[in-house]
Amino acid sequence: MKSTFAYLAIVGSTCVGMTVAALLPEERVSAQEAETKPAAKAEPTKDWPQWGGDSKRNNTPTASNIPTNWEVGGFDRSTGEWLKEESENIKWVAPLGSQSYGNPVVADGKIFVGTNNGSGYIDRYPPKVDLGCLICFDEATGEFLWQHSSEKLPTGRVHDWPLQGICCAPYVEGDRLWFVTSRGEVRCLDTNGFRDGENDGPYTEEEFTGEKEADVVWIFDMMKEMGTSQHNMCSCSITALGDILFVNTSNGVDESHIVIPSTEAPSFFAMDKNTGEIFWTDKSPHTNILHGQWSSPAVATLGGVPQVIFAGGDGWIYSFKADKGKDGKPELLWKFDGNPKTSKWVLGGRGTRNNIIATPVIYDDKVYVAVGQDPEHGEGEGHLWCIDPTKRGDVSAELAMKIEGSQRVPLEHRRIQAVIEKDGEVAVPNPNSAVIWHYSTFDQDDDGEIAFEETMHRSIGTSTIKDDILYIADFSGLLHCLNAKTGKPNWTYDMFAAAWGSALIVDDHVYIGDEDGDVAVFKLSADPDDAEPIEEINMGNSVYSTPIVANGVLYIANKTHLFAITQDGK
Questions:
Q1: Most CB atoms closer than 10 Å: which of 141, 276, 310, 391?
Q2: Which residues lie below 8 Å from residue 202, measured CB to CB, with a gap of 6+?
Q3: Kindly report the CA angle at 447 between 445 and 450, in degrees rounded to 5?
Q4: Band of the pLDDT at 6, cuts 50, 70, 90?
Q5: Contact between 401 and 390 (Cβ < 8 Å)
Q6: pLDDT digits over 221-232, tens only?
Q7: Residue 145 burial by Cβ neighbours in a 10 Å radius (0-12, 13-18, 19+)
Q8: How confident is the model at residue 204 (pLDDT cuts 50, 70, 90)?
């Protein structure tokens, strides 16, 4: 898959002699001139065709002149019309639904966003009809182009929670788009909809209102074909390697929050992007799924091997060889328990064991992932891990053992609690551990106590890393700034509101939104003196998504609108 990042070569001083010698005679310069010549700059990022920009999921586009301040303007209370004259640095605004959690992606002059049907763009589906919607807008103007409409499942909130819409981001390549519907389907769409006057698939309906509808190429129903049973919502931002799509099924518990109705159904699978054919499936979390599975996979070549990294609903991270597998099965490379072995799962978020909702991020050939829970479960203890992906087997920090006389007998993982100390069980260091570093608490002021600001809490956001500086927000509202190589904390900032999304790093600035609707802008810096935002702009409504940049434009979606932000609104 072609990366959305295009970097020019940067000549290091250690290889200047070799580089100069390889140049043509008319291009040769002295070693001294080469050393003093300014480094080539990275080319600007153009499209942003999937969650995180590319399959490594690190939200760090390259752009310049991205605004650090703006005013969103007001809206007419009777008509909902945007009052442009009250805005600053806003290019256009597009209405979304009444609740929007999906992150926008940009490709080939179009923007795609998941939301609900609050705007009622399609005549046959007025706003009172509850749908999961994937909406396509024109990149230049914000004009509505077409909508894919997913009707609610008749089973109700156990599988398809009311008003939540489409919560994932699609994957776009050429004139094709793939995404997971709230109904538990993988769908392939033509990015042009019916505006090109062609039907690219076998699906037609008499009620279609022409070019405003999505053009569906193929459908794979996970619930019907695999027997999956998603909990509350099906959501996975698909990624790909070549012709292979990688998908998390969201298989989870039922309305009792105790029973897993489809223990034999896959949690992860790979499929052909052109036909929907299944290459392999895997059910590794199996009977240990804690709640739901809403994480998205990451893909990269690590240690010379293409790997797809999945975060499971059991709190484990799984790496498989990113290929078509063999006999319908993938090759498991390694697995990692994201929780301490003594942690315990308690209903409603009252325990210390977590599942993983965040997407794994790959940076400098390392895997970064944080644990968390459904936002409805509230705040709690969290962990952030940096993992070496070149190791194999069980690479967890600890192993669970039962003491029997003088022997330690390995224990199989259990759903509720891996190690129960009162029963003579212990957690011992794993000699095969792939942990590079672990971040949970730190006594920054050396007072012997751990304060709120010195704690990593549950997170549903991803890490964002540039120049070895890592930013991650937790659900308690703390933005953590760490050294990506060592895990040493630089500083934390309290946003005083829950953070659902992830940070954006662009143009040497960091952008992060929160539930109060504020977007805080920081200087990209590890210096504690830069721990206060240089700007804090209110978007008029909660910001549950993650800011992105494509083609030099900053895009931020709040709960009800998508904003395109540029210098002077041009």
A1: 310
A2: none
A3: 80
A4: very low
A5: no
A6: 999 999 999 999
A7: buried
A8: confident
Q: What angle do CA 52, 58, 62 make, to 5 degrees?
A: 90
Is a pLDDT exceeding 60 seen at residue 368?
yes
Distance CA 275, CA 279 (A): 11
What are the C-alpha distances in Å from 361 to residues 307, 456, 492?
Answer: 12, 17, 20
Over residues 430-484, the pLDDT tens digits come to 999 999 999 999 988 889 999 999 999 999 999 999 999 999 999 999 999 999 9
Q: Are 492 and 478 in contact (CB under 8 A)?
A: yes
For 34-100, strand residue ranges (E) read 74-75, 82-83, 90-95
Question: DSSP assignment of 438-471, as one string?
Answer: EESB--TT-SSS--GGGB-B---SPPEEETTEEE
Question: For the residues of 113-146, what is the DSSP string, one character each?
Answer: EEEESTT--STTS-TTS-EEEEEEEETTT--EEE
Contact 532, 479 (CB under 8 A): no
Q: How far is CA 217 from CA 152, 180, 202, 274, in A?
A: 21, 14, 7, 9
Spatial CA neighbour of 477 closest among 466, 454, 493, 465: 493
Q: What top-level class would CATH report for the domain 44-397+433-569?
A: mainly beta
Q: Where in the sequence of the chain do the CATH 2.140.10.10 domains occur?
A: 44-397+433-569
Nearest C-alpha neighbor of 312 from the set 252, 271, 363, 259: 252
User: What is this structure's pTM?
Assistant: 0.92
DSSP state of 315: S
Name the one residue in this structure whose structure tokens are 């909406």: 135
